[in-house]
């Protein structure tokens, strides 16, 4: 049964087929799509960065190029970690719906934390004023103070939500294994 695993790329269909949790199956699809999009952004951004700095000799620019890839890795790794953890667990010990559900929730929470981190790190000159929005017949204004609070935080605090959620993914894995 473990013969169809096939490594990192094989973990996605393996986890999808062997999980009993519909939310986790949804996360496999969304997480694969999100990690693919983030990977493409990092690759295209790196190509643009190399093209813009090709005439400049090495040194600190080489370090910044490597840092760019490292940041991309720090975003993609927590996106695929729940899928890899679940695939490994199913291959070794079998199915556990609670484990799958918990890691799917943590994966979705990580995606939300990346968005929150991006909102925090928006430069002041690019921030748009937070306004209430309508959702059908209902006007939602509860998020206006939240967005304003996030805008008011120092940009470096944008690292906190993704780092905390990435650590929480590992913590949930360790707790429920």
UniProtKB/TrEMBL annotation:
InterPro entries in the cross-refs: DUF8056
Domain spans labelled DUF8056: 1-177
Membrane spanning stretches: 26-55, 67-87, 99-122, 156-176
Record's keyword terms, sorted: Membrane, Transmembrane, Transmembrane helix
Membrane is among the record's keywords: yes
One Pfam short name: DUF8056
Keyword Transmembrane helix attached: yes
Protein name: DUF8056 domain-containing protein
